[in-house]
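Archive transcription. Copying these from loose printouts into the bound notebook so they stop getting lost. Printout 1 of 2:
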Amino acid sequence: MQVRTLLLIIICWPVFTVAQWELLSESYHGNVYLDSQSHKRKKPYYFVWQLQDFNTEDKRGVKSRRILNKINCQTGERKILYATSHSEHMGKGSVLIGGVTQSSWTEPLPKTVGAKLISEVCS
């Protein structure tokens, strides 16, 4: 399973250099973007990159985070496969924290960023 995830990350890595970040949500914490060009489909799943750009850095110096989501449009659930936390805004700077995650499938609550992400990808 981890080998598949690693291969997917390697395939998607060039996306970082040509990402087309589109604003998905704004809040007092910061903005969330979706890379519309990174959508990959392997039925019944979609794989898509998300960028969280924070207004203020946290105590570890994190100003932004990139997340690779695996989305099941049939069930309305998502799973985070990979995440990196960055020292600069918009996923730039050095990677402070990062790697493969072991998250479980979750169905986001209505009117949350997660629900909006699934709606955008699956529509």
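Printout 2 of 2:
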Amino acid sequence: MDKKLSDDYRPIISYNMNKKGAQVIIILEFCITIIAMRYINGPYYLFMFNNPWMYFFLPISIYGLIWQFNGLTLVLSWIIYQIFKLIEPPKEGEFPIDSREYRFYCYRFWIIYYMTYVARAMPLPWVDYLAYRIFSLKTGGNNVLYDSWIDPEFLEIGENCMISLNTQLFSHCIYRDKFVVKRIVIEDSGIAGAGAIVAPGTVIGQGAVLGASSSTKMDQNLKQFCIHVGTPVKLALPIKVIDEREETQSEKQEGDESS
């Protein structure tokens, strides 16, 4: 009998998922966005053509076109994503690699990837965070994502959490001949260190820290208020909070005793 996936101590991540069908969707979405921009901006540029003010407003126009492309991409991606969700709703579980669930997950995955790529090209750091929330990411307030890679489906993030640089949160994986989708939960004040890999089914407890370049195995629970390190995580160190006033007082007492 095969052992459970959670019994495997190796970090489990997915490879680059199949793009064949998704490439057509992304190219079609890009073309629709450009055509929509052409018709939306047509009257403006017709009015400004040969106008002496055209060169004055040119920098603003270029910057506005960038934001317009970003906004239209976000709206169109959301519409296409909702259509695919209606056709095949997201599900948790283990599925064959040739299943319908895997195929439609790939479509939804690359639609969101394209949207995120465009959003992160913008100069404001909160654009990708807003885009993730518009889709299906469940997250509280005052969180930091940095340039991390996260799966927006089946991921819950509490409040005051930090997902550090190059951190990877995978609620899905391809393992042997199975496609696995399991929910990841990061409770309030949880931290995933730089370059960490979080496997499907992981629960990062309140105030827990996953160390830099560490990884979890599937269905692993990280204890609250502990620093977890290892690949995969095997060591949990309690977080000691030291009151500076108490530390100063103890140092004074030691100084008085020595004198």
